[in-house]
Amino acid sequence: MRTDIVHIGAGELTYEIRNIVNVGEKLQKLGIRTYWENIGDPVAKGEEIPRWMKEVVAEFVMQDASYGYCPTRGILSTREFLAEQVNRRGGVQIGPDDIIFFNGLGDAISKVFGFLRRTARVVVPSPSYTTHSSAEAAHAGDRPVCYRLDPANHWYPDLDDLEKRIKYNPAVAGILIINPDNPTGAVYPEEILRGMVALAKKYDLFIICDEVYQNIIYNGQKTLPLSDLIGDVPAINMRGISKEMPWPGSRCGWIEVYNGHHDPMFEKYVNSILNAKMVEVCSTTLPQKALPALITHPEYKTHLAERVSRYERCSNIAYDILKDIDGLIVNRTNGAFYMSVAFEEGVLNDKQSLPIAGKDVRAQVEELVNKPGTSLDKRFVYYLLGATGVCVVPLSSFATELQGFRVTLLERDEEKFRMIFGMIADGIKRYINS
Fold first, then answer.
1. The pLDDT of residue 51
2. pLDDT at position 285 over 80
3. Residue 220, pLDDT above cutoff 80
4. Which domains does the chain have, with CATH numbers?
5. Which one, of 191, 222, 227, lies nearest residue 209 by Cα?
6. The predicted structure's pLDDT at residue 281
7. Kind of pairing, strands 146-150 and 156-157?
8. Contacts with 178 (C-beta within 8 Å, 6 or more apart), sequence order
9. What DSSP designation does 315 have?
10. CA distance 385 to 102
11. Whether the Cβ atoms of residue 268 and residue 66 lie closer than 8 Å to each other
12. Are the C-beta atoms of 264 and 234 separated by less than 8 Å?
């Protein structure tokens, strides 16, 4: 074309979590039985939505108002309900106008990063959930600025590394926190969070916090929501119902703005996000109307507790199967429903492989692994998929130089779950020693 129409950050928009599905589907057509352990959709993994939850939603479906527009920020009564939940904790205090609804957190992430000044950077964790790191990098047209999560210390943030990334890069305006973390499953202790807030205050930054898994914590771990310890630091907190209820198809997420009027520049920035929502008119009405009724339903806590208990069992099964394999760095998952496993440095090379029975499948995998620039962990992921049908995501696709993989803990059938992780463990051993 006579004029370049490609956005400067288009090359940073990648999502290997779904890209790997294209490979899996091709191999499926060639006869491979595929075990989809790549994406965090509880419903796709057989999560049964309880009847009482369906009945609550059905009641709102029968109301004509559920089919109409809602206010740009979201339904007032729902925002009042959520603000009261925050205020009841006794930390930062917010009003309903400090809450803005979006069509899922993906929409919120796109707006929050997309309306930053291009030269303003948000330092993101490494490894980092792809939607955040890609959106931040795309808005700036450059690689993401990252701080280290330490696999040798429960995947906790390295606060010394974080401060260096801030101190020596004056373009950094904000810090991203994901707690509980995706992709690692780490749950951050209070002292770590306080340290991160202290750095934001020291260097006059704002915080973006993703707490979509805040109520999915187990193995005796504890943390605090950002609202409890943010003090007077400006912040945007992200919440949603896609994982907790779970209702990912609702596309219902929201941001809570903390200390939105304490800094004129931050206030102007938040207003730009709101103005962008005005152009869209509103977000999805039905889940907003149903949200308070679902959360306050007498069976909701029992429903959530059962799910959390199941993830705890799976986290321990997975950890026990993988923890003693030579060449791996394995941490027990304590929150959300993901596990990230890293290979020790030097364990992987470009000569390793796994035996693949089908000629056509083997040819497809070999074509993929021989593409220029294919990372060593992606080679492993392709061979594992071709040899066993288990579909995981290469860790290097999560804004990190570490080599490894992320896998979900969502399989409901415990016997099948053990089988899948047994295949992963056996595949790793054979691959490393090939």
1. 97
2. yes
3. yes
4. 10-47+301-432 (3.90.1150.10), 67-295 (3.40.640.10)
5. 227
6. 80
7. antiparallel
8. 125, 128, 129, 132, 209, 210
9. H
10. 35
11. no
12. no
